[in-house]
Amino acid sequence: QYEIEKLQEELAQLKQSSITSHVDIPSNEDTKSLQKIIEQQSEELKDLSEKYLVLSSQVELQNEINRQKNETEEQLKIYEDQIQHLIHEHENLVEELQKKTLSTIVTVDNECQTDDQQHDKLTQINMKLKRILQTFKDKIHRIVIEKPELFINISEDTSERLDHLISTIGHQATQINLLQTDHASTLAMYEEQLQTLIQERNALVDQQVLQSVDKQQESAELKQSLISQQDVDEDNQSLKEIIKQQSEELKDLNEKYFNLSSQFDSNINLQLEFHKEKKEMEERIINYENQIQNLIHERTNLLEEIKKITSSPVPTIDNEKQTTDKLLKINNKLKRILQIFKDKIHRLVTEKPDLFINIGEETSERLDHLIATVEYQATQIDLMQTERDQSEKQLQNQIQELQNSLDACRYQIENERPIKTEQLVNATPPSDDISRATIENYEKQIHQLQQKLSQNDDERTLLRERLNEVELEFRKTLDDRLSTTNMYEEQLQSLVQERDALVQQQVLQTTENQYEIEKLQEELAQLKQ
């Protein structure tokens, strides 16, 4: 535009000079020079006209470029607005995602804390139940160790031992002796049960360790997700910086564009640079469109992630619920075992209230009293067994003494009878008062006495056989472990009564025999006289 104005001024000067030349009267030389000048100026004018046309075309091209530039700037502005809008929406979504994530993490932490509290509570209840159960087992195990003879053929199962202990208490009042047993198998079974409990405990410990490792892994995953979220924020920040840089580049390009637009002389270079810049702008526009698409895609992913975080539960809660359910099952199992113990002891208290006088209602106290009663009654039974053995031995000695005395009496009677009869016959003078029938009568009486002695021997033999049978039966009952204290007491009473009756009978028979012998001796003496 400036050159056009300059050319117009030169054209005006030429016109002014031509008017002045017409006013003056020129000479030929002046005319020729003027013609040359006019020709030169005509050529210059022609050149200027061509330049004007070129400049006009350049102006039109510049206007077109400006128009395209304006359109491009408007399009870039639209894209920038879209990018800013998407960035703002992305920031809102990221903020919402962080809030959702934080709220989810807080919810998960609260649920984890609640589950941890419930887990700790269940663990404490589990340990308490195990301690109570172990206390019962230790008490029963202690009585097993102290009195192994009370648990003959009883397995290591604590419930079975408690049943046997209650059964022993219920029948100990009627028993004399408790059975001998092999305690090694019981200890082995108890060790096996302890090993099972230890394995269960180790399994629980391992499970808790695995749960702790899972929780640590889940915590690491949550931290990783937070770190990745921070990475996303950093990416967004870097994207903002890139967009800012691109805005600055666009600003620089605009400045360059204005600088280039002022350079009309370099038309070809200007067009080349314009096409190049246009291509770069198109590429940037494509990049902007790609960024917009990426932001839209990222926005969609964030929305889906927010939806998943909002709707999907955390797997950790399910794992902890499974652990809690398992602990509840174990606690219920331990509670059932303890309740069985309590029910059995309560049943014994109901059936035998006289055994639990002045004893509290606590199961542990009742079990201690039960064990103490078993130990006391076991001691009493041992003492009764010792007394029974001593009485049996004493009875056998007395029977042996009676046997010896009876044998001596029989031997004495058998030896003295023919001697005294011969002495009586020899010493008796012939007399009419003593008849042969009287002597025969005495002989019959002596024979009857001998028969009575023989019968007494037979009865003594029968009694001895009976005693042996009773002893065999007693031994058999003891070996079979089926007899009770009452039966042994009754048998002992029966044996004592039989022994007393036998002793009394033997004493009476001996007294009668002695009396009859003395009477016969007196009668023989009278006959001799």
Automatic annotation (TrEMBL):
It comes from the Eukaryota. The keyword Coiled coil applies. This is Uncharacterized protein. Residues 31-100, 187-312, 381-505 form a coiled coil. It comes from Rotaria sordida. Keywords: Coiled coil.
